[in-house]
Amino acid sequence: MALREIVHLPAPILRRKAKPVIKFDKTLQTVIDDMIETMREAPGVGLAAPQIDLPMQLAVVEYAEGEDEEEENEDREIKKKLYVLVNPEIVKVSEEKVNGVEGCLSIPGLVGEVERHKEIQVRALNRHGKPVKHKVEGWMARIFQHEIDHLNGVLFTDRAAKIWKPSEEDETPLD
Ligand code: NI
């Protein structure tokens, strides 16, 4: 496995629509493993292939449900969940939307308030090409929407109602 370089704005690839993955070969497995390693090293909660300069419909997400909750849940075991999304497609969204602060590994030094669907259903392929369906909500749903946006050349700054430079103690998860 190897770390890949994360590209930043104004890299044109961040504005392009990624192409569907059609071959589930050894090369793809290496790309996926490298993306997971690069995301963890950053550290980030998600990474899309265009962020490592690959125009592929592929993203990884790793986040622990409850990471954003208050201390009352401190004792609860927090387990990180890893998703590999190949050719993901949002098939259902909740009417309810929620605001949250997002940052992006490809846009260092800026965060923004973005409205996202509270709950979504996503159809995708797993790393071996098998169809999967994920129903996610809250922060996980936010990360999924942020990553799927990346595959369409859309960045959080396009959707943010407000954008600002975070102070050092702000800890916004990046993806
Ligand atoms: Ni991002």
CATH topology: Peptide Deformylase
The helix content, as a percent range, equals: 10-25%
CATH architecture descriptor: Alpha-Beta Complex
For this structure, what is the CATH homologous superfamily?
A: Peptide deformylase
- Global geometry: globular
Strand content: 25-35%
Major beta sheet summary: 5 strands, antiparallel
Strand tally is 8
Helix-strand pattern, N to C? HEEEEEEEHHE
Listed once per kind, the bound small molecules are: nickel (II) ion
- What is the total domain count? 1
CATH class: Alpha Beta
List the strand order in the largest sheet: 1-2-3-6-7
Helix-strand makeup class: alpha+beta
Distance between the termini: 20 Å
**Which residue ranges are poorly predicted, with pLDDT under 50 across at least 5 consecutive positions?**
none
Describe the fold and architecture.
The radius of gyration is 15 Å and the shape is globular. With 175 residues, it is of the alpha+beta class. It has one domain (12-164): Peptide Deformylase (Alpha-Beta Complex). It has three helices and eight strands; from the N terminus they run αβββββββααβ. 19% of the residues lie in helices and 31% in strands. The strands form two sheets. It has a five-stranded antiparallel sheet with strand order 1-2-3-6-7, with helices on both faces. It has helices spanning 26-41, 138-151, 156-159; strands at 46-48, 58-64, 80-93, 97-103, 111-117, 119-125, 131-137, 162-164. Nickel (II) ion (NI) binds at residues 104-106, 146, 150, 175.
